[in-house]
Automatic annotation (TrEMBL):
This is Conjugative transfer ATPase. Pfam families: TraC_F_IV. InterPro entries: TraC/Conjuga_ATPase.
């Protein structure tokens, strides 16, 4: 144990202001990188961190491609292309951005809720109905276990697993100045663009559903908390955790009691464990589960229709989508930036000239 006053070493330099400041330094926060601030129910949109820009979230019902001939797929592709091209204004500054996310999920809360609401009023609450719903939930959990239920050697030649492919779409535009475009406020402009987009997608055979705060939070909670163990490590414990932290049917507080404290920052309320990063390996850890971002931005040839998520014959007799071969819980993200045609054509011409030796 050092003697009293041993720290008064004349040969040792005293602490500087920078040394003291380093003791209270805070590492960069992952949450500060997220753009979501608050969900606005009236606008049905998410307010971004600049306090002006808005984003709309949708869940899409993808087109079934199993058993479709190439000509039908090309027509569906052309209809989708026209919907995307005709729905957005091409702006030189602050362009519109559309992001698509696809993931095979084994979370059955929404499906079970739909099944529960499907029950006829005369049968709701009966012992038989409750037993049936419980057995169906057990069945879904059994067939969606990690690694798959069995090996499909007849059709896909891949492990078969109970899951549902969820596709989500985010539409937003970064506002500049006062945010007005042709006299339209950001919320009005977003509403008009979304109406045109959803109408075009409907003509292409794609159903859309506007996501509310609960839906958005449900999606992102499972992303940033892939394996929460606050209530236990078993499947039912994890399901119970998500039911508690994102319950749509929140009961009002009893008389004489105060409501639970909750923050207004949407991004801050998404994390129940501290994210960690490993710069050397290029990994992010959520609930100690490693996550890596792989960027694909160079194509030699134009991809075929359904190249990633469409079911095509892959040599021999195997019939599956390329996305089916990716690791479990993979998220596919495609980002479209709506660019004026003249700017895009000038950029392509510049690349063509540089490609000639």
């Amino acid at each position: 144990i050092p003697e009293p006053g041993a720290w008064l070493d004349p040969k040792r330099k005293p602490a500087t202001v920078d040394d003291i400041a380093a003791l209270y330094a805070v590492n960069p926060s992952f949450v500060d990188m997220l753009p979501w601030t608050e969900y606005l129910p009236q606008e049905q949109a998410m307010l971004l961190e600049d306090g002006k820009s808005l984003a709309a979230f949708y869940e899409l019902t993808p087109i079934g491609t199993e058993g479709r001939d190439p000509e039908w797929l090309r027509k569906a592709r052309d209809a989708l292309e026209n919907a995307l091209q005709d729905s957005f204004d091409e702006l030189d500054e602050s362009p519109w951005v559309v992001q698509f996310y696809a993931k095979d999920e084994t979370s059955w809360e929404d499906y079970l809720e739909t099944l529960h609401d499907y029950v006829q009023p005369r049968a709701q609450g009966t012992a038989f109905t409750e037993m049936y719903l419980q057995q169906f939930k057990h069945h879904l959990e059994a067939i969606s276990k990690p690694g798959g239920l069995f090996e499909d050697t007849k059709v896909s030649q891949l492990p078969w697993r109970g899951q549902q492919r969820r596709v989500r779409m985010v539409v937003y535009r970064r506002c500049t100045g006062d945010g007005l475009v042709r006299g339209q406020t950001p919320s009005m402009y977003l509403k008009n663009i979304c109406e045109r987009l959803t109408g075009g997608l409907a003509n292409a055979g794609i159903k859309t559903r506007r996501m509310d705060r609960h839906d958005i939070r449900h999606w992102l909670l499972h992303w940033f908390n892939p394996h929460p163990e606050h209530l236990g490590s078993k499947r039912q414990d994890i399901d119970r955790f998500f039911e508690i932290v994102n319950n749509r049917k929140v009961e009002p507080p009893e008389e004489g009691t105060l409501p639970l404290a909750s923050g207004d920052d949407f991004s801050q309320c998404l994390f129940y464990s501290e994210p960690q990063s490993d710069a050397k390996k290029g990994l992010w850890y959520f609930d100690s589960r490693p996550h890596r971002v792989i960027v694909l931005d160079r194509l030699r040839d134009a991809p075929k229709t359904g190249h990633l998520t469409g079911e095509n014959r892959k040599g021999g007799d195997a019939l599956h989508a390329l996305f089916d071969k990716l690791p479990e819980d993979t998220v596919l993200n495609i980002t479209l930036v709506i660019t004026p045609q003249d700017v895009l054509e000038a950029h392509l011409e510049k690349l063509a000239r540089k490609s000639v030796g």
